[in-house]
Automatic annotation (TrEMBL):
It comes from the Eukaryota. Interacts with BACE1. Interacts with APP. Interacts with STMN2. It is found in: Cell membrane; Lysosome membrane; Membrane. It is a single-pass type II membrane protein. PROSITE patterns: BRICHOS (PS50869). This is Integral membrane protein 2.
Amino acid sequence: MVKITFQSVSAQKPEKDQDADKITIPQAHGRLVPPMKPRKPFPTGLCCLAISLVIFTLGLVLPSIYIYRYYFMSQQIPEDSLFHCRVIYEDSVYAPLRGRQELEENVSIYLEENYEQISIPVPHFGGSDPADIVHDFQRGLTAYYDIALDKCYITELNTTAVMPPRSLWELLVNVKRGTYLPQTYIVQEEMVVTGRLRNMRQLGPFIHRLCFGKETYRLRRRNQRQRIERRETKKCHRIRHFENTFVVETIICDRF
């Protein structure tokens, strides 16, 4: 008989070094410091693009509003503000044509914009040039475009000779039923050229539209003494127009 015996084997694992398994985390001043994340760059290119688009949009919108208001809306004048005038007046200043004369013109009155535009066709008799005239009461300026000379002349608005738009409109409405205006008289104003104008935009949109692309000169009124002494020394031309209860003859002379 064979006897088999088992012996218990007591094997103890060696104890691990506890200090070797510890993980040491560095501390700053007793606080944990989280790892720093990389900062994303600021999208400067996108901001510049957005600002450029805003400026470009404003550059399109604002001029469009300006053009629509002053160049398109101003042309939409109601029919009751358009007048074709023919006035009989007594000419006592121009010797070849003394006596009863007739002046014909077209008047457009813009009440909201506060200006008047007058178109004078070629007169039936000599002594006056055809012209287009703008009286801008907002800026206090008058522009004469002499069609025969193809030149523009700018001067201060003479409020004693030119009725404001509302008053002139009321005057023409009162006589619109008749073909002729009541017989009236003529007065003179004499101007002298003082120099050429280069910057047209300072004159406002209405005068700028009338004189754009034309030689433009500034005028000043001549006093009575200068009229007597120097009237015949320089070449002058005349524009006769009606914007009051009388006819005005504007005499424009070259610079002395």
